[in-house]
Amino acid sequence: MYRHPYFHHLYHPFWTPVPAQAVNDTRPYPPIDTKRLQSSAHEYHQLMKQAELVVTQIEQSPQFARDLMQAAQQSNQARVDQLVASIDDSITVETHYNPDGIQLKYRDKKGICCVLTIGLAW
What we know:
By secondary structure, this protein is an alpha+beta fold.
């Protein structure tokens, strides 16, 4: 008749709900100040502009893309950094690459508020 002869109902009549409590209700949060968040957003926007220059150069210049890939395949870190810096030398970009692609990591000037990481496959 029934495939599972032993059935237990999920409702347990002796269970009483416990009121929910806040996770950190013993420590109050400081007053909200949006200045740092807005400053971080501004810095991040600047990083996005600088990253767009590099991505656009890779997209629109087959020779640049070829030179970048060739330097990476030869494990020539100095040449990879030089190529990326040739687009906009006002910012330092960390570059990492492997056989699958390249990663460009942009940080704000002080290095305390934001990081923009771009990964491109090749």
